[in-house]
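To whoever is on call:

I kicked off a structure prediction for a single chain this morning and the downstream step that reads the tokens threw a length-mismatch warning. I double-checked the sequence; it's 177 residues and nothing unusual in it as far as I can see. Pasting both halves so you can look.
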Amino acid sequence: MSFRLVGFLLALLVAVNVGCSDPPSSVGSSLPETVTSSAPAQPEIEAVWSLVTFEVDGVEEAVEIGVNTSNQPWIDLRNPYLTGSLGCNAFGGTDNTYTLVGGVLTAGPVFRTAAFCVNEGEDPTDEDAVMVTEGAFYGVFEQGIDGITVEVFADEMVWTAGNTRLTFSKAEEPPSG
């Protein structure tokens, strides 16, 4: 055998061992450790979320049933499509699948029912009536046509689009009412 062929075979043997996941200890001890990286994990959003605060144009308000909403607003993200309650009206659809990529949520068309809600004894012309929360919640869908920025921190989720920011807390099930 020529020295050239022996050198080639030796180089081939080293190359094969470098590619092995468990190289022999005599060769592997001098090789650098293999470092693998993966894309950051997507935040866990597949849950029911209750709206707790909303901010429009820098003014934050807590969700208060009977003050700025008639019922607890919520969203259910356990399915591949959006569904929930804006507080008075329902929203959803079977053709509005959502995706979350790189912290941006996009969805297909979102429908909503069109009832006007007021609390008993409330002036329906009052701008601070129960429809305020609903306007902020649905406003995110309208402003987020190119996507809604989503941040998730343990049991809290924050949506931002345009001049609106919504803060949700994780819930076991959709609220009744």
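Update from on-call: the warning came from a stale cache, not from the record. Cleared it. Sanity check on the structure: Helices lie at 3-19, 25-28, 131-143.
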